[in-house]
Amino acid sequence: MLKVDKVVKEFNGFRAVDECSFEVKKNTITGLIGPNGAGKTTMFNLIAGSLKADQGEVYFSDQKVNSFAAYKIARLGLARTFQIPKTLKKMTVLENLMLVPGGQSGENIWNSWFKSSKVKAEEKENESRAYRVLKFLELTHVADVLAANLSGGQKKLLELGRALMADPELILLDEPGAGVNPTLLNKIAKNILKLKEKGKTILLIEHNMDLIMNICDRVIVMNDGKHLVDGTPAEVKSNPRVLEAYLGEKTA
Amino acid sequence: MTLGGIFSYLVFFLIFTGIYAVMTLALNMQRGFAGLFNIGIAGFWAVGSYTSAIMTTPPSAEHLGGYNLPFVLGLLAAGLVAALLAFLIGIPTIKLREDYLGIATIGIAEIIRLVIKNEEWLSNGVRGIAGIPKPMAGFLGHNYNIFFLLIVVLIIAIFFYLSEKGINSPWGRVLRAIREEEEVVKAAGKNVVRYRMEAFVLGAFMMGVGGALYAHFTSFISPEAFKPMQATFLVWIMLIIGGSANNFGSLVGALLTWGIWTGTEFLTGMLPAAYTTQASALRVILIGVFLEIILLSRPQGLFGEKKYSASSSKS
């Protein structure tokens, strides 16, 4: 599904990602963990095409995508959320979601001018889909609120909502649990599992170890831009190298 | 001045306001909706004016053409050539940060003015093109300007309608989203560069048509008419005063600004003849003061940004 092969990314001589390789299998939930500054979000940006790798290759759905523009990779069926929520501030929550679906015929100005009835019908469909996502995230009451006025946690949920609207094959979630209350976090965890049931693949960065241990099939650990270990949650948890990476010193 | 005189001056005034309104609507498409920094309106204006002039004048040894085509075709060609120019400028610059587009457009506007000034075979150089035909001028008598005003109003109505419909559609939603947070739009699989380019080209088309209207109304154009002060910055002031991202505000901004601009002409005209040079500088200062007052008291412009929505159930 997704394969990262010896990817390198440098920022002014600092290697944020250093010959990192791993694979994500179809229809699994894979956790990507590691200490702060391990290069996890940079890796997300490399996979999604927001950044270009200096060396190495990224393969997604059997294609080499490391030279693709971000929007092209998204069209291949990849959706992502951002660690620090990015919202369309002056647009309503509903509009934030309705923006997302691909292939809307009204995105073509000509259709929007001269084929209004078709565009309107699609918009209705799109809107009810957005309302289903809002209902699921318990955000229905803020549908018409400008995204700028949401709380931090709600913005986090809106990020997730956008990923759900895209209906992608692979979803990259960057700390979906940060700043979200425990009840909702449970709900998000259940939803991630539900996505897996639907055949989706999820790659997830998260610092909440309970969430990682409960829902992930595999866990990849990064440290200093490198792939450290991977395995089942239980294997990773008891691996001394992981403890060392997190705690800094040889404490084991 | 007689009542008839006042009336015909009013018509004259409104035609110019209307031409500027076309330009402001065009700039609003580029700047207000797509966040594009075009400070070379004069270039698109000039290209529109000269294209229509060359297309519609009778054959002449003094410049390219003329091709003696009907007014409507001249208008259309003016829009298309200006749009093509925008497309060519956009290829290298539109994906860059906005200041680069600004630098490119202001540079190219100046280059265009110099080309028109120097390439005599094309544009008759500094002597300009005269005798640009007015549509139906033979049939209509001395109330002709009213007819021309109707043409201008019709074109404003078409552009206004299409611009409103566009921005209130899924297309417009993507455009507004790009202005807010480009990364989100990319992550949703939308080609940001394409949308920016479309807004830039559409705006340029409108500017080209506006330029053509100007050429036909004044029936004489020369490089002098396309200096940045009148052709670019006045349009920006209109947009800022009316409120960016608001088509209605653009129209009002054009009316008010052009009113003040021509009004100051009366005022400075009252100064003794010895002060003519100072008088024209004074007009610019007065417009500047007006802009300052608006920026300090209503930074969002008189009307501010309109709330647009693509949703069918609302609006």
Describe the model.
Chain A: One of its GO terms (molecular function) is ATP binding. Chain A: Residues 2-249 form the ABC transporter domain. Chain A: Pfam families: ABC_tran (PF00005), BCA_ABC_TP_C (PF12399). Chain A: It comes from Halanaerobium salsuginis. Chain A: Keywords: ATP-binding, Nucleotide-binding, Transport. Chain B: It comes from Halanaerobium salsuginis. Chain A is of the alpha/beta class and 252 residues long. Chain A has two domains: 2-87 and 156-247, Rossmann fold; 89-149, no CATH class. Helices cover 39% and strands 23% of the residues of chain A. Chain A is built from ten helices and ten strands. In chain A, the strands form two sheets. Chain A has a six-stranded mixed beta sheet with strand order 6-7-8-3-9-10, with helices on both faces. In chain A, β1 and β2 (14-24) form a beta hairpin. The radius of gyration of chain A is 19 Å and the shape is globular. Chain B has one domain. Helices cover 71% and strands 0% of the residues of chain B. The model of chain B has no long low-confidence stretch (mean pLDDT 90). With 315 residues, chain B is an all-alpha fold. The relative contact order of chain B is 0.18.
